C-alpha cells in the first residue's frame, strides 16, 4: 500500500547538505522531520486536515469497529480521521495501543505487516511515560513520523518496487549527510533483509535508519574534536552499545 503526494521531500534536502568525515556535524537527518518526534498538536492538526482526503498507506481504512460509533468525538487537537484510525487499531478499546496492535495495522507496499521489532522500536520512541503503549497524542506523533519516512522511502525507491536495494540505500545515506562505503551499505541490506532477496522493505528501512542515527549520536558524544575519530576503552564501548540497545535499537 502506498502513500501519495511526495513533493515535500525534495524541499527538505537542504538540511542535509553539510558533511563531515564519517557523518554530518548536525543531525544527518531528523532536523525537522526524519528521526525526530513532532511536537505541538496544532501543527499536527493542520497537517492532518491537509492530508485527510488522501490515501494513507499503512493504516486501516476509515471504518470503526462495532461500538466506536457511539463514542464521543476526538480529543482536542486530534483530526477525526486520525481518531477513527486510532480506535480501529486499539482493538481492545483500552484507549492505548500496544506494539502488537500497531503491527497488525501497519503494512508494507506488498501488504505484508511491519516486523515486530520495528513496531516495538517506534512504540518505545513515542511512549513518553514508559507504559509500553501509546495514547492518541503519541499515536498522532508516530503517524506523522511514519508519513515522513514513507515519503523519504518512496523518493529513493526509484523503480517503484516497494523495496530499496544497496544502491538506492547508498543514495539515501548520502542525501542524509553520511559518508559511508558501499561495503557498509551492503552490510546494512544483509542485516535488515528479512527475506534474503538483497533488498529491504519500508519497515526495515525505518529500523536501519533509526539505528544509524542513534549510534551516530552516541558516537558524536565521544567525538570531542568532531573529526570522526574517537578513543574509548572496552567498557565504554560496551556501555555505549548497551545503552543504545535499551533505548530502542
Give a summary of the structure in a few sentences:
The chain has 249 residues and is mainly alpha-helical. Helices cover 49% and strands 0% of the residues.
Overall description:
By secondary structure, the protein is an all-alpha fold. It has a domain of 168 residues: EF-hand (Recoverin, domain 1). Helices cover 49% and strands 0% of the residues. The longest helix has 21 residues. It starts with 7 loop residues before the first helix and ends with a helix. The N terminus is likely disordered. One of its GO terms (biological process) is bioluminescence. This is Peflin.
CATH class of the domain at 80-247: Mainly Alpha
Shape: globular
- Rg over CA atoms: 19 Å
In whole angstroms, the N-to-C terminal distance is 26 Å
CATH topology value of the domain at 80-247: Recoverin, domain 1
Uncertain segments: 1-70
Region (Disordered): 1-83
GO molecular function, one term: calcium-dependent protein binding
InterPro entries: EF-hand-dom_pair, EF_Hand_1_Ca_BS, EF_hand_dom, Peflin/Sorcin_CaBP
Keywords: Calcium, Cytoplasm, Cytoplasmic vesicle, Endoplasmic reticulum, Luminescence, Membrane, Metal-binding, Photoprotein, Repeat
Amino acid at each position: 500500500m502506498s502513500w501519495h503526494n511526495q513533493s515535500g521531500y525534495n524541499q527538505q534536502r537542504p538540511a542535509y547538505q553539510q558533511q563531515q568525515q564519517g557523518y554530518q556535524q548536525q543531525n544527518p537527518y531528523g532536523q525537522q522531520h526524519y528521526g525526530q518526534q513532532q511536537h505541538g498538536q496544532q501543527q499536527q492538526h493542520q497537517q492532518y486536515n491537509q492530508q485527510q482526503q488522501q490515501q494513507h498507506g499503512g493504516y486501516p481504512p476509515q471504518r470503526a469497529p462495532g461500538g466506536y460509533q457511539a463514542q464521543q468525538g476526538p480529543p482536542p487537537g486530534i483530526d477525526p480521521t486520525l481518531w477513527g484510525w486510532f480506535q480501529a487499531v486499539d482493538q481492545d478499546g483500552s484507549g492505548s495501543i500496544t506494539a502488537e496492535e500497531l503491527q497488525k495495522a501497519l503494512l508494507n507496499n506488498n501488504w505484508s505487516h511491519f516486523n515486530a521489532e520495528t513496531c516495538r522500536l517506534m512504540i518505545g520512541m513515542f511512549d513518553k511515560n514508559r507504559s509500553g503503549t501509546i495514547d492518541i497524542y503519541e499515536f498522532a506523533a508516530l503517524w506523522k513520523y511514519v508519513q515522513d519516512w514513507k515519503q523519504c522511502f518512496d523518493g529513493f525507491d526509484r523503480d517503484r518496487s516497494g523495496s530499496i536495494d544497496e544502491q538506492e540505500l547508498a543514495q539515501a545515506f548520502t542525501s542524509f549527510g553520511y559518508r559511508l562505503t558501499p561495503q557498509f551499505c551492503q552490510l546494512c541490506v544483509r542485516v535488515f533483509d528479512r527475506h534474503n532477496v538483497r533488498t529491504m522493505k519500508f519497515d526495515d528501512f525505518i529500523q536501519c535508519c533509526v539505528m544509524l542515527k542513534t549510534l551516530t549520536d552516541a558516537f558524536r558524544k565521544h567525538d570531542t574534536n568532531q573529526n570522526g575519530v574517537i578513543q574509548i576503552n572496552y567498557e565504554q564501548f560496551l556501555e555505549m552499545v548497551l545503552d543504545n540497545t535499551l533505548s530502542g535499537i
